[in-house]
Amino acid sequence: MGKSLVINIREKPCLQTLLIFLCWAFSTVVCAALPVVPIAQDFTKLEQFQMGYFVDNTGQMSFSNVQQSDFTESPNSISLGTKAKTTWIQIRLKNTSQFPKTIFLHHPYAYHNRAVGLYEVVNNTLVRERYLDMDDKSTQEWMYRGSAVFDVDLQPNQTKTLFVQSLSFSHQWLALNLYNEEKSKRALLGQYTDIALLVGMLLALIIYNVLLFLSSRLKEHFYYSCYLISGGFWIALSYGLLADLFDVFGSVTLKWHLTLVSMPIFLLLFMINIFETKKKYPIEHWALMSVLIMLIIDFVYGLFDIVTALRYSSILAGLMMIVSLSVTVSMMIRKHPIAPFFLMAHGLFIAFSTLALLFYVGKAEFNYINSHGVGIGIVLEALALSLIIAYRIKNLETIKASQDELKLLASTDPMTRLYNRRYFNAEAELLLRQAVLRQQPATIVLLDIDHFKKVNDTYGHSAGDNVIIRVANTLTDQCRKQDILARYGGEEFIIFMTNTPVNQALPLMENIRRTLEQESVETGYDETIHFTVSAGIAEVDLGNPNLKNSINQADKALYQAKGFGRNQSKIYENK
């Protein structure tokens, strides 16, 4: 049976010394594994360098224990997902110049954190510490326009290790940059210009669609406006524009993230409306309504427990994307004209949001497209969905134009393009009421082509039609814009003269009659047709206004004109 070998280190001083040396050497190797960032005399900025990170899964480790932990080397911009809420960053700096230097450490995404701490260590000794709590205003002196900015002093040839503690509410992602004083100020000035541009584009669409809704009262414009408002607010909140403009951050903004839930709610309502699923597609309507109800429940729940609600919102957002995409494909198969536009718009949103989702869970590299994917997707989807709005407006304009054309056909005489008797009676009644209300005189003129039957019998109905058209064109040219002119019968025309007493109507009518007397129409047999008209004029009795009576009086005056030899105008006289 073999004999076990047990060595008591305390009894072997040489082994004890060797073990201590090996531990020290191992510790040195681990620390040395992280590269030193040199700060030269001409240093201006560093936006790409190597650092190390360590995740404290307990969230309770002391700083001394963190110092002894193993840090994983990484770029200065990282995304670690939802399981790294307490993360430590280690940056080793060395002032390689012979002069003291002050540099500025920027954490540009600090606004989405719960807290940020900075610990400065020289020769394993903590020389300075600062703790920035987003909910404690007394600690926010290092917070500038949404960014955490810490000044760090370096003595000549000094090596200093920085430990940055980043505490997130949910997702851990950060980027740390180093600047001199001038570059630090410049970095803060233009930090959120791109986000302001995205929000500005959405704001323009919001104003346009609100105006469209107010003018048309169409629900689709209302839902689309609410979708844009939710998306624009979330972009401003999540990408730091609100923190930059209004210094709002920390737990107070947590519930504002419910706009991430309200956004798909309004998008689904927009889909239900534009695809008219309630009336035409019951299965698709049921699918959209099911997701819509779950989102509404999650939104209401978020008013009481925002953290849990946002956790479920990610699942619901994924379900919403699947259902909405499936419904859109179904609409494509049914050849719905709007489906291609919606598929393009929603496809852009899903593609960029997928990149962002991979970034947030730490599965995609830190770059601008990935970190801002949701915002870019929202804006691109909003712009593409505006094509649907434009298509719908064009469609409505086409329908309106068709309706206007039908109304025009129903209210006009097809031969002369003048208003017909039905339209004249309706408009004249309206003008008559206005005349009575304003106590303004009004006159009815009825005129008829003289010996028109003879024209038809002699030259044919085609020539007679040409005479009617010539009279109509001349009347159109001679009548005032304020008057209503209509073809009242076969060869009979009627004029409602507004704000015109009978003594003014007579010279106006005589001028028209004399003009028509000079007109002629050529036939197809080298013959010329000359014609005249007779007219009857009657002033409306404002004390007892009655359009039918006034027309009858004008008709009686017309017969008087014909009886006195035609080609003349007569005023109605009540005898």
From TrEMBL:
Q: What is its EC number?
A: 2.7.7.65
One family from Pfam that matches here is: GGDEF
Q: Which reaction does it catalyse?
A: 2 GTP = 3',3'-c-di-GMP + 2 diphosphate
Q: Which Gene3D superfamilies match?
A: 2.60.40.2380, 3.30.70.270
Q: Which InterPro entries match?
A: 7TMR_DISM_rcpt_extracell_dom1, 7TMR_DISM_rcpt_extracell_dom2, Diguanylate_Cyclase, GGDEF_dom, Nucleotide_cyclase, Rev_trsase/Diguanyl_cyclase
**In the UniProt record, which is one GO cellular component term?**
plasma membrane
Q: Which domain of life is it from?
A: Bacteria
Q: Which keywords appear in this protein's UniProt record, sorted alphabetically? A: Membrane, Transmembrane, Transmembrane helix
CDD domains for this protein: GGDEF
Ranges for domain GGDEF come to 440-574
Name the cofactor(s) required for activity, per the record: Mg(2+)
Per its UniProt entry, what is the enzyme's top EC class, as one word?
transferase
A Gene Ontology molecular-function term? diguanylate cyclase activity
What is the name of this protein? diguanylate cyclase
Transmembrane segment boundaries: 195-215, 222-242, 254-274, 286-304, 310-329, 341-361, 373-393
The Gene Ontology biological process annotation of the record reads: cell adhesion involved in single-species biofilm formation; negative regulation of bacterial-type flagellum-dependent cell motility
